[in-house]
Amino acid sequence: MADVIGRIADLVASGPTPDPDARAVMEMSILDWMACGIAGADEPVARATRAAATAGGCAPVFGARELYPVGYAAQINGATSHALDYDDTHFAYIGHPSVVILPVVMALMHDRDGDIVLPALLGAEVAVRVGLWLGRSHYQAGFHQTATAGAFGGFAAAGYILGLSAQQMRMGFGLVASRAGGLKAQFGTMAKPMNAGFAAQAAVEAALLIQNAVTANPDAAEIYGDLSAGAADISALDRIGQDWFMMDVSHKFYACCHGLHAALEAFSTCDMDGLTTITVRTNPRWATVCNQIAPDTGLGAKFSYGTVLAMAASGVDTADLNSFAEPFNLPPSSVALRDKVTIVFDDAVSETAATVGVTYADGRTVTASHDLRAPQSLSVRQDKVMAKAAALIGGARAAEIQCALAGHNAGPTLAALM
């Protein structure tokens, strides 16, 4: 296959000298564009987009004192909160709900009184439901559901906060459909967290545009499903508003792709001394997600069964962010262990489970399994998430956030803690 993009990149980088007539035609188009823009400046869509650009005011972002326009605040916070790849995952649609939905909610609620949990819950629910509706063919085709389904969920949260009508919501979902994107091809690069940021930005901006009277085809979201899903599943909407998928969200306790966690949990019960081979049996869904063979960056290592299991076997704490810091250099001992890891993809293994088989120099063979959907009480889950938060940001700050969430007007308090 011809390297089309490579040839285009070479062309642009070389700074070619165009034909004088081509330049003259481009000059015509610049004049034409300026004339159309100036003449169209009072059209309804032009007035609406100008109004929407400033309607949301400015919002806080992680790690900065200054405020940013709400669309960019949502983008920054989405990318920032997904940068470590340590955030929650919902396996029903293989997406990260919080990193799209919560940047939207905080962008619009940072200076508002009211409940932030309900719009967040509604947005996450819509993201999961849309992800299920789009189906696994959408994900397997290469779309990053965190961003695609997430953009719809983010808009749902924003629309609720802004009090949009049902008809406005339909048009807004149609508008979001024009921007819902994100590719799994970006995994292992900075563009993966940017997928979440772009989705959050699209959701906020679509809601503000609709609020300011921009119109869109209310059926466009349905068309998006037909185009990008192949076989959309309407049963994804069964008992919506009665059963809440967010109950089944899974939080990460290792600083790498969630597809690796079941294997890490199973492997953690095994003896690490004297092992000779490691075999992981896992679902084929993860073959194109977290099976990078020999990554040379920390970002890439987060998506590599062999690398992460070799790190664990070498005593490296895969829950520690520093273990994946750049520059990433896997020690020779871990490289040797990585070569002992075999991955077997098996449809009989659920997407949330893995079985690890370990052989030892003395002839022993040990097998261990784990399923991330194994039931845990709410209190156990709360304790584990609190312990993780304390390790990441300190116990005092984690406690402040937990306390703020117990209040009705959490938005401004949480904004101050960002």
Question: In terms of topology, how is this protein built?
Answer:
Layout: H1 4-14, H2 20-39, H3 44-55, E1 58-59, E2 68-69, H4 70-82, H5 98-109, H6 117-134, H7 136-140, H8 145-162, H9 166-177, H10 191-211, H11 220-229, H12 261-267, E3 275-282, H13 298-301, H14 305-313, H15 332-338, E4 341-345, E5 353-360, E6 365-371, H16 378-393, H17 395-405, H18 410-416
Parallel strand pairs: 3-4
Antiparallel strand pairs: 1-2, 3-5, 5-6
Helix pairs in contact: 3-10, 4-5, 4-10, 5-6, 5-8, 5-10, 6-8, 8-9, 8-10, 9-10, 9-11, 14-15, 16-17
Report what the structure shows:
Strand 1 (58-59) and strand 2 form a beta hairpin. Helices cover 51% and strands 8% of the residues. The protein has 18 helices and six strands. The strands form two sheets. It has a four-stranded mixed sheet with strand order 4-3-5-6. The two termini are 47 Å apart. The protein has three domains: 52-251, 2-methylcitrate dehydratase PrpD (Orthogonal Bundle), CATH 1.10.4100; 258-371, 60s Ribosomal Protein L30, Chain: A, CATH 3.30.1330.120; 378-418, no CATH class. Helix 3 packs across helix 10.
